[in-house]
């Protein structure tokens, strides 16, 4: 009888303990994370994770699949959560998912909404979100759902692509009342962040292997001048001592937390010149110089092949397992490198000192191929002109002659790309022409974000063959500017560049073009200028030669570097070139500078002039640049080039029901145009991930109103500067304030474990 009594007491104690907190999470369920009322949210190995706020209170996990995207949010609240997609980062035309867990019965609500402006988002007529599951504990709300890439709701949904997506988020501490029929409590937290949603799984884990070595290169406490908004600082570095070949397999930025707002981009260039030790060794310990000014040693101009191109918003990169960048001249790479850092100080802050840089990962466990980076686009020259008050497109040519001479017979495979423009940039893409036909466009971002220039990893690697003609196209939105914008180094000036990482390594390093200056002058009605031949010659890039190096002058510059950092730094404005172009004819422009004509607001009121300028920039003659490593000019190429003639490729829109059933490509040699489905990435489901919803919580029939999100979002820090990443599907309460913690401390003990411990107690004292 005593045995039965002990059995009864065991079950009774277990029942009391397990029923003490109905909202706690069981972390040991064999089916995954167990929420209130036994709702199961199975574990999932998500492909991506992003901390959307500064403090780790809002975490987004997602996995891109072929037809849809699986999303989970883990938010430090017991109230409602919102996640949306926005064209510009605000509420207007945003597509919003709104969710919460009812405190009384644990019922999960998820609804599809849209916002037409700074007002309550409306419920979509078509609900295109599929709830997979959700729960809340004492500190967090967790919701998981699926959403098709292409929905049939063209009016109220934001169609997701591989372009940059402005993600908006919000949450509050309260749930809506009842089933959400009334107004939602105004959210206490909100923000925005740009992300790539369709990228393949990152491989950063490869950077922490047993045979991987770190090489940190940092700027030498550069003091930003308080009277300059833009500073380019360059410094030389020598590789670590190695006795065998090493491959660089990835990198991470090292940004001083207090200087995030000032560091715009960093490029690490390989230096290639004869007798490099003789010319560059003495600079390896020097503090550096302002880039591209009078104090930069001429020998440094041989540093033109990028190894790393980092820009604001990027978290770094890990290269594919089949390719690595060689270190050392004896092993097919470079021994000396030049780090270029672009500092942006628009408010002219004084006392800013920076030591940011790069952490480079390299190993002697070699990959199959040596890799390299090729830069192409529009040359950074003042001939890059963007009119005010409108949208504008510029192009840069990488000619067929250049790729014919610079690439191996079998071609190269591009595995990643960095797209780079400044504040006006809205779209960047690369058009590839082969044998008179346009190839499917793999590299393009129609919603480019200056503040998010993460490397684009290509799951379907791009093959470039000798003879391919590549056109870089950049679109700008200058509708809010009242004066023209020119090509240049400052963030308020513009660039149009693409950095392509590829293998196998080839000689080609730079492939640019810019509009012919004579054509530009003619477009503005300028018939003759003073020193015409000299003006034209100032634009020509003749490459690098050892003859440019004056040892005595370089020694003088070296001593100057030892005095102080940023000594004699001056503003470098390329547009000042136009002040030297003085008009002779016609008479009504006599003695005016080209700069004054361009700055005259009446110039940009002539719509016919604007149409002609756009057409000439796109289709008129360009001056091409084709250079090998070390800025060596490729001989025997045409002096002028034009936009190529080709048979255009027409992309078909994917079916909104089943993207995989899009029409097969038709490429008929007889046709003057051929079609192909819109380029998409083929993404297989993650092994072990559910192919169908598991334990759907409800039918999404309940909705709540959401008050408008304020116009100004909360700024966030880049991920590499934030708290330690959370483990997948786990809540990290250590990142929360003490008063917010408690989720992991109130986890229930499973009934089976309670019975076992009770019986051990009985047997010990019996």
Automatic annotation (TrEMBL):
Keywords: Copper, Disulfide bond, Glycoprotein, Metal-binding, Monooxygenase, Oxidoreductase, Signal
Residue span, DOMON domain: 56-172
TM stretches of this protein: none
Region called Disordered, residue ranges: 660-696
UniProt cross-references to PROSITE patterns, sorted A to Z: DOMON
One GO cellular component term: extracellular space
UniProt xrefs under CDD domains: DOMON_DOH
The organism's place on the tree of life at top rank: Eukaryota
Leader peptide range in chain numbering: 1-19
Keyword set includes Ion transport: no
Cofactor(s) named in the record: Cu(2+)
InterPro entries: Cu2_ascorb_mOase-like_C, Cu2_ascorb_mOase_N, Cu2_ascorb_mOase_N_sf, Cu2_monoox_C, DBH-like, DOH_DOMON, DOMON_domain, PHM/PNGase_F_dom_sf
Biased composition (Low complexity): 675-686
GO biological process assignments: dopamine catabolic process; norepinephrine biosynthetic process; octopamine biosynthetic process
Gene Ontology molecular function: copper ion binding; dopamine beta-monooxygenase activity
Family designation: Belongs to the copper type II ascorbate-dependent monooxygenase family.
PANTHER family reported for this sequence: DOPAMINE BETA HYDROXYLASE RELATED (PTHR10157), MOXD1 HOMOLOG 1 (PTHR10157:SF23)
Listed name of the protein: DOMON domain-containing protein
Lineage: Eukaryota, Metazoa, Ecdysozoa, Arthropoda, Crustacea
């Amino acid at each position: 009888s005593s045995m039965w009594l002990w059995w009864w007491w065991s079950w009774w104690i277990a029942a009391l303990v397990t029923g003490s907190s109905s909202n706690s999470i069981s972390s040991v369920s064999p089916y995954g994370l167990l929420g209130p009322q036994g709702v199961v949210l199975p574990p999932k190995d998500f492909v991506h994770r992003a901390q959307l706020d500064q403090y780790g209170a809002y975490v987004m996990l997602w996995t891109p699949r072929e037809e849809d995207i699986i999303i989970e949010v883990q938010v430090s609240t017991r109230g409602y959560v919102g996640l949306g997609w926005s064209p510009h980062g605000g509420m207007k035309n945003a597509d919003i998912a709104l969710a919460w867990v009812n405190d009384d019965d644990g019922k999960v609500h998820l609804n599809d909404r849209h916002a037409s402006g700074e007002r309550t988002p409306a419920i979509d007529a078509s609900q295109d979100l599929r709830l997979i599951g959700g729960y809340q504990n004492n500190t967090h709300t967790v919701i998981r759902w699926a959403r098709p890439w292409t929905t049939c709701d063209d009016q109220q949904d934001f169609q997701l692509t591989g372009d940059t997506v402005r993600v908006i988020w919000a949450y509050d501490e309260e749930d809506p009342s009842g089933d959400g029929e009334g107004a939602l409590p105004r959210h206490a937290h909100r923000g925005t962040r740009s992300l790539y949603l369709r990228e393949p799984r990152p491989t950063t884990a490869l950077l922490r292997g047993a045979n991987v070595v770190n090489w940190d290169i940092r700027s030498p406490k550069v003091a930003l001048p308080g009277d300059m908004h833009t500073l380019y600082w360059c410094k030389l570095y020598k590789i670590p001592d190695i006795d065998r070949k090493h491959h660089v397999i990835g990198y991470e930025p090292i940004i001083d937390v207090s200087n995030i707002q000032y560091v715009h981009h960093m490029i690490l260039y390989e230096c290639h010149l004869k007798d490099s030790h003789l010319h560059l060794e003495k600079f390896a310990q020097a503090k550096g110089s302002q880039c591209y000014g009078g104090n930069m040693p001429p020998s440094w101009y041989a540093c033109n092949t990028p190894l790393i191109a980092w820009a604001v918003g990027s978290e770094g990169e890990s290269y594919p397992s089949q390719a690595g960048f060689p270190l050392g001249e004896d092993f097919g790479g470079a021994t000396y490198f030049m780090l270029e850092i672009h500092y942006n100080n628009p408010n002219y802050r004084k006392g800013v000192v920076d030591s940011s840089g790069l952490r480079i990962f390299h190993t002697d466990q070699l990959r199959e191929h040596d890799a390299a980076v090729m830069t192409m686009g529009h040359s950074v020259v003042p001939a890059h002109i963007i009119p005010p008050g409108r949208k504008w497109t510029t192009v840069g040519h990488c000619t067929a002659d250049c790729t014919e001479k610079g690439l191996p017979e079998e071609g190269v495979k591009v595995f990643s790309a960095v797209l780079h423009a400044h504040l006006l940039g809205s779209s960047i893409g690369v058009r590839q022409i082969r044998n008179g036909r346009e190839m499917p466009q793999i590299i393009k971002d129609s919603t480019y974000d200056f503040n998010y220039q993460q490397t684009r990893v290509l799951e379907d690697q791009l093959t470039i063959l000798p003879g391919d003609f590549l056109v870089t196209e950049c679109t700008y939105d200058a509708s809010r500017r009242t004066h023209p914008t020119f090509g240049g180094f400052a963030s308020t000036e513009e660039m149009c560049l693409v950095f392509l990482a590829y293998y196998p390594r080839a000689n080609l390093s730079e492939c640019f073009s810019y509009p012919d200056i004579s054509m530009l002058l003619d477009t503005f009605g300028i018939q003759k200028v003073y020193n015409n031949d000299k003006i034209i010659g100032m634009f020509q890039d003749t490459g690098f030669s050892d003859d440019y190096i004056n040892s005595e002058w370089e020694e003088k510059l070296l001593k100057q570097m030892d005095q102080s950092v940023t000594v004699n730094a001056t503003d470098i404005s390329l547009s000042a070139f136009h002040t030297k172009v003085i008009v002779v004819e016609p008479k009504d422009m006599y003695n005016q500078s080209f700069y004054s004509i361009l700055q005259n607001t009446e110039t940009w009121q002539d719509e016919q002039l604007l149409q002609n300028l756009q057409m000439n920039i796109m289709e008129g003659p360009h001056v091409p640049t084709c250079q090998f490593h070390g800025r060596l000019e490729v001989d025997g190429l045409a002096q002028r080039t034009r936009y190529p003639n080709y048979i255009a490729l027409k992309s078909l829109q994917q079916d909104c029901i089943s993207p995989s059933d899009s029409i097969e490509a038709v490429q008929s040699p007889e046709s003057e145009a051929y079609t192909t489905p819109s380029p998409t990435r083929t993404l297989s489901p993650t092994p072990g991930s559910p192919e169908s919803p598991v334990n759907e919580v409800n039918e999404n029939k309940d909705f709540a109103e959401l008050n408008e999100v304020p116009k100004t979002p909360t700024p966030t820090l880049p991920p590499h500067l934030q708290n330690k990443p959370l483990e997948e599907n786990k809540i990290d309460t250590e990142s929360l304030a003490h008063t917010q913690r408690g989720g992991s401390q109130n986890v229930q003990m499973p009934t089976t474990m309670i019975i076992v411990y009770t019986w051990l107690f009985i047997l010990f004292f019996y």
